[in-house]
Design brief:
heterodimer, A: mainly alpha, 14 helices, globular, disordered C terminus, B: 231 residues, flat
């Protein structure tokens, strides 16, 4: 046995569960918490999916559904957007995947403060309950649009201005408290609780993506927190932080002197990093999926890490590109357009590296691989339309049209969701010990992938024609041709089909939990640490009596001279193929990883 | 970072210059050597909290510049008379002095914590908490005076811009909430120190972690003082 330095990190006191309640309900095990986070997020995501279906029904077949009126339509738009961005994507990537993967991939027994981690998920549930309560209050949920721009968000005339907006803001503040408790855990665990041999530059890219995204969250959510509190004060006790002098129906309201544009700045100072809070974990996870299922090391690991860090940093200086039509100084537009386009450089670098990872690789068209390739294609499409919208002169005519809807659904809706699906197909065996059903999965993939193109590709065209977004009805708008209206009907049909197929995915997850094929340990022959636990699924404490020792990076696939086509991270180099085969520089990773 | 000759666990790393620094920081197990988990987490939390207070203060400056009604002069609003002429900002000056003194007693508590002097740690933390409590008490007095005597409300203000009251109650309220949490936190830790909880664990890091939070709350007050009361 080689000499191994003694462990420096403190030992975690584990609270071993002894009853059903402490094991599955008030659990402090990061894996159980991750599953709880995921189940809540997916459940609330289904609500948002139904809302999008209702929206599409109105857009595709205006006037056919009596129960959808302009007020409810706006409420559907608002709740769909807010739930999908915050309560589904953020919670699922960081609370779900972050919780599950960080300790396992870093070789830790749990998060550093398991009790706080447990509080995080329950406070998250509280925020979801508060949000869902707004469906049942007088006036219904808020219909202000997910951006909640004042002054209209809190004034009479906007749906849900009685109770809905208050519950929305309270729920957001509670969510941020929950996220902070979890996020502090994730960051501290990555920084301070890795096992011996797990250097920062040996961490799988999934951990890098989640780690940087969590830092973004800890620094961006404060802006939403503060603006949420200020808007609550405006709405509840009548301050005027965001409220200018307003004449409504001939009457001057009691507001005056505030700055509506301040809210937009604060919201987007949160809102733009939020895009990357969702995107960076997807970038990281998809890198790992590609590498494992193409049996090849990720191309340009160091570049990939630095690209994640640089994208994270740049995401804080681009926020006002959401506000080109808000009446800013043109010089601001110049600055923000420049920074926005600079982000394309590290992002394009990542896309090239994903493609080069697949170059001449042994690609297995497993379900995670299909979703990962689907992600690359979709992300490139959505990213390129982002370059259009990042330029002020192109954005001005396109803003508030369906083109914008198509752009952000492609880039931060569908693309990260494809990664989430791929990641669930990939890690489901680790969580449950069973494989998801392949046939159902393939059907799910093809309908989802092709379906989303059927939905969002024509939407770009609608945007060019000038079809505005967030409109309840286009009745009597002369410049919208009949063909655009027919296209809207077609989009609706595609959207409903894609929506229904997601239920098949849910069914697959439930069915496979009981009837799925047993996976055994490490069914994908992955090299990263989470698959090397003594038991599959891993038990409380993750590792046996001793923490694993890490000898290499997470991407040793098809190493020349090695006896298997993959070398797990905890396999010493001398065990690769017998002693004589150890030639310096023989493996792509041997020099510095 | 010293490498043992037979150690193949870690890659060969540079030991000097910027590369050495990067290798050291990126080495296995811990990015910050000898920093316990609780302390690392407190630093990260304080970074996040710094953003919250910065955004509060930036928002205050923005609404101060957007409102068209004149902004009241804080020196007049926060003047207090002890029989003679009103002295500008006298109460705020005393509050600031007390809060900064409490940082001093807190620093001493941390020092005695590492010396293992249980009794002195207990009393110094208790004194710090009492300073904090008196700060909150004086803040309550200040709020009462503004609300009851001068008719300032979050939504209106007889002396000028309504945003003056809104910002004042929101920011000092949020800061006072932090101080109150700190007082509770200090008191709990102080009594646990006296009970000997941390001797069993063999370390007094918690005292330092509590201290970090307390110093942060003081530092934030200095900025609120500068931007709200002195401007």
């Amino acid at each position: 046995m080689d000499y191994v330095a003694p462990a420096e990190v403190e030992d975690l006191e584990l609270h071993d569960p002894d009853t059903f309640i402490t094991k599955y309900v008030w659990s402090q095990d990061h894996k159980v918490i991750a599953v709880q986070y995921s189940i809540i997020a997916i459940a609330v995501g289904l609500v948002a999916l139904v809302l999008s279906g209702l929206m599409r029904l109105q857009l595709g077949f205006p006037g056919m559904f009596e129960f959808i009126n302009p007020a409810t339509y706006l409420q559907f738009v608002t709740m769909h957007g807010m739930i999908m961005v915050i309560y589904l994507l953020t919670a699922l990537f960081l609370g779900g995947f972050g919780n599950y993967l960080i300790p396992l991939m870093c070789g830790a027994r749990d998060m550093v403060f398991p009790y706080m981690n447990m509080l995080s998920v329950w406070v998250y549930l509280l925020s979801v309950i508060i949000l869902m309560a707004s469906f049942f209050v007088p006036g219904g949920p808020t219909g202000a649009g997910w951006t909640l721009y004042p002054p209209q968000a809190i004034l009479q005339g906007t749906p849900g201005s009685d109770w809905g907006i208050i519950l929305m803001l309270v729920s957001l503040v509670v969510f941020i408290v929950a996220f902070t408790m979890g996020g502090l855990n994730y960051v501290t665990t990555v920084l301070q609780a890795r096992t011996r041999g797990m250097t920062l530059m040996r961490m799988p890219l999934s951990v890098w993506g989640i780690f940087i995204a969590t830092i973004l969250g800890l620094l961006a959510f404060p802006a939403l927190f503060v603006s949420g509190i200020m808007m609550l004060l405006d709405r509840v006790i009548g301050t005027s932080f965001f409220m200018p002098v307003i004449i409504s129906l001939g009457q001057q309201l009691d507001y005056g002197g505030g700055s509506p544009i301040l809210f937009q700045h604060l919201f987007w100072f949160f809102g733009h990093p939020e895009v990357y809070i969702v995107a960076l974990p997807a970038f990281g996870i998809v890198s790992d999926l590609l590498s494992v299922h193409a049996r090849r090391h990720i191309f340009g690991y160091r570049m990939m890490v630095w690209a994640i860090v640089i994208i994270g940093g740049l995401s804080f200086v681009v926020w006002a590109h959401h506000m080109y039509v808000s009446g800013m100084n043109p010089w601001f537009g110049f600055f923000f357009a420049t920074t926005t386009l600079i982000i394309a450089v590290p992002t394009a670098l990542k896309v090239y590296n994903w493609t080069l990872t697949l170059w001449k690789a042994n690609i297995n068209f497993t379900l995670p691989m299909l979703f990962a390739i689907g992600f690359i294609v979709t992300f490139v499409n959505g990213g390129i339309t982002g370059l259009f919208l990042g330029n002020v002169v192109v954005d001005v005519p396109l803003s508030d049209t369906m083109f914008v809807v198509a752009h952000f659904h492609m880039v931060m809706g569908v693309a990260p969701l494809l990664v989430i699906f791929g990641a669930i197909y990939h890690w489901y065996p680790l969580v449950t010990g069973r494989m998801l059903h392949e046939g159902m999965g393939k059907f799910h993939f093809w309908v989802t992938f092709l379906g989303t193109y059927a939905i969002y590709f024509p939407m770009h065209y609608l945007g060019f024609v000038g079809v505005p977004r967030r409109y309840y009805d286009y009745e009597g708008i002369e410049f919208i041709p009949q063909s655009a209206r027919d296209l809207n009907s077609a989009i609706t049909i595609a959207a409903l089909i894609v929506g229904v197929v997601q239920l098949l995915f849910i069914y697959n997850m439930i069915w496979s939990y009981f009837k799925g094929k047993k996976s055994g340990p490490n069914p994908w022959k992955a090299a990263s640490l989470e698959w090397q636990t003594p038991q599959t699924p891993p038990v409380h404490g993750n590792w046996g009596p001793n923490l694993p020792l890490v000898y290499r990076w997470a991407y040793d696939y098809a190493v020349p001279g090695a006896k298997d086509d993959f070398c797990p991270q905890n396999q010493p180099r001398s065990a690769d193929a017998g002693s004589s085969a150890m030639v310096a520089g023989s493996a792509p990773s041997a020099e510095d990883n | 970072m010293s490498e043992h000759a037979h150690d193949t666990l870690l890659p060969a790393t540079p030991t000097s210059g910027v590369e050495g620094l990067a290798a050291d920081w990126g080495s296995d197990q811990r990015a910050f050597k000898n920093v316990p988990w609780g302390k690392a987490m407190m630093w990260i939390f304080l970074l996040s909290d710094t953003f919250i207070f910065s955004i509060f203060l930036t928002s205050y400056m923005t609404v101060r510049s957007t409102t068209t009604v004149p902004w009241p002069n804080p020196s007049h609003v926060f003047a207090l008379s002890f029989g003679g002429d009103p002295i500008p900002l006298i109460l705020i000056a005393i509050m600031t002095f007390i809060l900064i003194s409490s940082s001093g007693t807190m620093a001493m508590a941390v020092n005695f914590g590492y010396r293992g002097d249980k009794k002195k740690v207990f009393w110094l933390m208790l004194v710090t908490a009492l300073f904090g409590l008196s700060f909150v008490g004086m803040q309550a007095f200040e709020w009462t005076k503004l609300i009851v005597d001068e008719g300032v409300r979050p939504w209106t203000n007889p002396m000028g811009a309504a945003q003056f009251g809104s910002v004042f109650f929101m920011i000092t309220g949020f800061h006072g909430f932090h101080v109150s949490i700190g007082v509770i936190y200090l008191t709990v830790v102080a009594f646990k120190v006296r009970r000997g909880d941390y001797e069993k664990k063999g370390n007094y890091q918690i005292v330092e972690i509590t201290g970090l939070y307390w110093h942060f709350v003081d530092l934030v007050w200095v900025f609120i003082f500068a931007f709200f009361y002195l401007w």
